[in-house]
Amino acid sequence: MAKTKQYCVAENWGKGFIEHSESSKIKFAGYPGNVWQVPAHNKDANLWINKVLGVVKTLLEAQSIVDVEVTSFQNAWDADTVEGETGEQAIERKGERPADIILEE
Amino acid sequence: MATYKEIHGFKIQNVSSDPPAPFNGQVWYNSTTGNLRAKASLQVLAWSTGNNMNSARNAMGSAGTQTAALAFGGMPTGINATEKYNGTNWTAANPLNSTISKLGSAGTQTAALGFGGIPTGSPTGQTESYNGTNWTTVNPLNTARYELSGCGASNTAALAFGGGNPYKAETENWNGSNWTEVTNLNSARKALGGAGTNTAALAFGGTSPGVLTELWNGSNWTAVNPMNTGRRDIGSAGDQTAALAFGGNPVQATTESWNGTNWTTVNSLNSAREEVGGTGTNTVALAFGGGPPYYATEEWNTGPSPAVVSIGSS
Q: Which residue of B has its CA nearest to A73?
């Protein structure tokens, strides 16, 4: 089956990175590690990747980048401890542990 | 049903080229291209990126509008920083007196209020008032809590509701000097969204069950139509009759718009996140930060001015 999504890495520089005219035409999904998912076989998506100088990644490559970033969030969460704090208190203070992210094909 | 001629005074014209200055709503047939053409106002609402925050954070307080916003406190642990957004850039401003996250907030960029939340340790009722330059510690909430929601027009008129732990239904009204307990929410919850003023507020989502919406009329909460997607840690903007809910936990990009009666799912954020800051209205809003701590800002707007479009195949 032909893939319906494609991935690239591009740094979000702020205003103009994703414009209204682009997000109203195609669906973006940003992930940790500057990974962006846009529709595959789509002229507007390809134009946007060119505009932001995105480096196209396979699903596995993109997943690997996201995994590294999420692991870093999880490690930071694990390392943030207060002596005597219960598990529930820890979640109260710092929120739930960042969850793994599984990219879609 | 009225015809095109009855509305505009003439029939749809058959022309060889597009008219030089069509009015919005005008329709014509271009015989050269074989298109039925129209000038239409495409009021598509969508998120676009704005310039990033200086300090990545989530679970912060937020106030103001899309072009004059305020972000304060938040996580990761130990943030008391304040930033101002002018529609283009975020600039650091004087910090809160205390590091705090998961707080309630209300007001504008020049008259904001932050209340409740969790510093290192137990939930607090601490309240700070911002005058556009400095934060001042004022009288605390009667019920200490975190992951509460809040709304209000300024630092002299605000409403605090919900929170944890355990789930709280308590609602308190701020008159500029003191918090007064008023009628509870019908459903106790935390990590809920909020919009409006202290006399006309909206509470939505939260833990648990995540879709409930309630209206505050200044005296009582009334359950109304629920959200389409259950969630907590929601970003919010708007007022009681026109609100916007975006992002949340489970981590998502889903955006819903409230028209005073129903929630409708609209275009999603470009980046999924929870505990995202939010200000503005349901047609001109700002989303910033969110967890795990991100810098990203997104702006919610209608599209460009009316455009000429072809109807049917070319």
A: B292
Full-model pTM: 0.88
* Chain-chain contact of A96 with B249 (C-beta, under 8 angstroms): yes
Which residue in the set B58, B251, B304 is minimally distant from A99, CB to CB? B251
Residue B20: exposure state from Cβ atoms within 10 A (0-12, 13-18, ≥19): exposed
- CA-to-CA distance for B233 and B58, rounded, in angstroms? 10
A102 touches chain B (CB under 8 A): no
Cβ–Cβ < 8 Å for B279, B15: no
Q: Is residue A99, in this structure, part of any structural domain at all? A: no
Interface test with B, best of A17, A21, A24 (most B CBs within 10 A): A24
In a domain, A102, yes or no: no
For residues B156 and B178, what is the distance between their CA atoms, to the nearest angstrom? 9
Question: What gap in Å lies between CA B310 and CA B314, rounded to an integer?
Answer: 7
Amino acid, single-letter form, for residue B19: P
| pLDDT mean by block of 10 residues, chain B; 314 residues | 71 88 84 85 86 95 98 88 98 96 97 94 93 98 97 98 94 98 97 98 89 98 97 96 96 96 97 97 97 93 72 53
Total domains in the fold of chain A:
1
Per CB-CB distance under 8 Å, the chain B contacts of A19 are 48-49
Domain B47-301 grouped into CATH 3.40.50.720: no
Residue A105: inside a domain: no
For residue A55, the enclosing domain spans: 5-94
3-state secondary structure of B299: strand
Question: Does residue A54 belong to any structural domain of this protein?
Answer: yes
For A20, B65, B144, B244, the CA distances from B52, given in Å and listed in that order, are 17, 16, 32, 21
Separation CA B243–CA B91 (nearest Å):
27
Chain B closest-CA separation from residue A1 CA (Å): 26
Centre a 10 Å sphere on the Cβ of residue B259 and count the other Cβ atoms it contains.
11
What value of ipTM does the predicted structure carry?
0.91
Domain boundaries, chain B: 4-40, 47-301
